[in-house]
Specification:
By secondary structure, the chain is an alpha/beta fold. The chain has a single domain, classed as Alpha/Beta hydrolase fold, catalytic domain (Rossmann fold, 3-Layer(aba) Sandwich), CATH 3.40.50. The protein contains 3 helices and 4 strands. The termini are far apart. Keywords: Hydrolase. One of its GO terms (molecular function) is hydrolase activity. This is Alpha/beta fold hydrolase. It comes from Streptomyces coeruleorubidus.
């Protein structure tokens, strides 16, 4: 579990470390397992990063500070820790677009 220095986020990574990165983010109340079929399909072409947000899934549950802004800061710190130069980010709202 990477520790970006904020909260510990349970994170699954698939694909080659040098491939372009794709960050898949679940919706409120879910966890990264929602992305399993997509992550596996994308792993042949991308480095797929699938975290559980703070307070979700297997990630740490802080006593306070579970705002969307803090979750976004967690994701930025996670990407800094894992080292991709840039990432395409998708959230579950994108997967539900008409």
């Amino acid at each position: 579990m990477p520790d970006p220095g904020r909260v510990r986020l349970s994170t699954t990574t698939l694909g080659a470390a040098g491939a372009p990165a794709v960050l898949l983010v679940h919706g409120w109340g879910g966890d990264g397992r929602e992305w399993s079929p997509h992550a596996e399909a994308l792993a042949g072409h991308f480095r797929v990063i699938v975290p559980d947000l703070r307070g979700h899934g297997r990630s740490d549950v802080p006593d306070e500070g579970s705002t969307p802004a803090e979750m976004a800061d967690d994701l930025a710190a996670l990407l800094d820790t894992l080292g991709p130069a840039g990432a395409i980010a998708l959230d579950s709202a994108d997967s539900m677009a008409p």
